[in-house]
């Protein structure tokens, strides 16, 4: 079952029954009839394949499945913001926000464009805001629309985790871990952690989204990935995120095999050759600046800005460029003799590598197990 298949009113009814302890009180709380609440609970139990309540003469006693699911539902309902919103409206608007046009959203979902138009229009009425503006053949989300799209994505992420909690309760191993991988983590740390985790949980899928911090932090905030692994940022710039340090990485200066500086170098020699570096504002670029500030003198030329390790590798092999990277990121090329390690960056030059999650994120058991696998891989790398 997908999280966008839930009937939102049924979720609200279930949460109310847990709170009130009876169908009659819950029906008044969510403005539904008692038969509607009873029917909604029965449909939820059928969808989920678990019993949620013990029907007793004095009321409804929440079973463990309901107790596990209830906190996730509370968060999802708060993010959705209205019991008038339907699952069809959520699916339509999230698809539109992702695709950028009704035509693309229709192609992605298999829902006809008129139905998507109607669902998004009805959603706007339900929440009392204009959600989209037309821009040629596409659409642009209004400010309220952007805020709602983020809340709905987070709501779906919370319900997805609720489904994982129930699967765990039923003894079912499955689901998917969604990981954002920044450049350094892709070479050794993340592959090792994935293999370590899958050895214990072979039925759990891993989905890796590659990108720079700027490309991954939005999906992380929207709940579309569970965690990011890579260089940490200034905590003051991300108060809504939680950063957990794993290890300190000390970059090294790399060049092609046979580069003139393989025989030795000094600060002036480092300035004579062009550099390939990631864009301004990235931790590695800041470390490079700190390195030359400590060495003194002018900054060398940086004719190529690039964050792709594959592209940097080919450029290094083809010319007399220098770069600053971690050894692990190009270990295969270094071991094969295509590239040379000129030497560690002079000075106290290091960056903190770690895990980044949402500050309010409550991981499932399997997500915690994956983070444990990451930490175990770090221990092996640094021992």
TrEMBL record:
One term of GO molecular function: transcription cis-regulatory region binding
Keyword Transcription: yes
InterPro entries, per the entry: LysR_HTH_N (IPR000847), LysR_subst-bd (IPR005119), WH-like_DNA-bd_sf (IPR036388), WH_DNA-bd_sf (IPR036390)
Highest taxon above the source species: Bacteria
Residue ranges of domain HTH lysR-type in the record: 6-63, 85-142
Keywords (A to Z) from UniProt: DNA-binding, Transcription, Transcription regulation
Family to which this protein belongs: Belongs to the LysR transcriptional regulatory family.
The protein, known as: LysR family transcriptional regulator
Source organism: Sphingobium limneticum
């Amino acid at each position: 079952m997908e999280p966008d298949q839930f009937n939102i009113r049924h979720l609200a009814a279930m949460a109310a029954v847990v709170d009130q302890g009876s169908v009659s009180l819950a029906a008044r709380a969510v403005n539904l009839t008692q038969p509607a609440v009873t029917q909604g609970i029965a449909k939820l139990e059928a969808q989920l394949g678990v019993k949620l309540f013990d029907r007793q003469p004095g009321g409804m006693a929440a079973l463990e499945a309901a107790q596990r699911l209830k906190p996730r539902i509370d968060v999802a309902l708060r993010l959705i913001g209205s019991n008038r919103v339907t699952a069809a409206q959520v699916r339509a608007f999230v698809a539109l926000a992702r695709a950028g046009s009704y035509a693309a959203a229709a192609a992605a979902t298999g829902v006809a464009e008129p139905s998507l138009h109607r669902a998004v229009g009805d959603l706007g009425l339900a929440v009392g805001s204009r959600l989209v503006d037309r821009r040629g053949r596409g659409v642009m989300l209004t400010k309220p629309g952007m805020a709602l799209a983020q809340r709905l994505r987070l709501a779906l992420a919370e319900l997805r985790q609720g489904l994982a909690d129930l699967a765990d309760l039923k003894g079912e191993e499955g689901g998917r871990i969604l990981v954002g991988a920044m450049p350094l983590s892709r070479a050794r740390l993340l592959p090792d952690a994935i293999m370590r985790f899958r050895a214990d949980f072979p039925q759990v899928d891993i989905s890796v989204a590659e990108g720079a911090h700027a490309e991954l932090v939005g999906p992380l905030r929207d709940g579309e990935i569970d965690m990011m692994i890579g260089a940490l940022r200034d905590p003051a710039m991300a108060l809504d995120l939680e950063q957990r340090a794993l290890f300190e990485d000390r970059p090294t200066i790399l060049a092609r095999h046979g580069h003139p500086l393989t025989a030795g170098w000094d600060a002036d020699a480092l300035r004579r050759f062009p550099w390939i570096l990631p864009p301004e504002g990235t931790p590695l670029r800041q470390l490079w600046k700190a390195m030359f500030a400590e060495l003194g003198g002018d900054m060398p030329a940086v004719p190529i800005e690039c964050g792709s390790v594959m592209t940097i590798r080919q450029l290094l092999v083809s010319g007399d460029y220098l770069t600053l990277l971690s050894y692990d990121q190009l270990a295969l090329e270094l071991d094969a003799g295509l590239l040379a390690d000129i030497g560690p960056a002079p000075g106290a030059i290091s960056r903190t590598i770690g895990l980044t999650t949402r500050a309010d994120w409550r991981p499932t058991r399997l997500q915690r197990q994956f983070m444990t696998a990451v930490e175990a891989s770090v221990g092996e790398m640094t021992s």
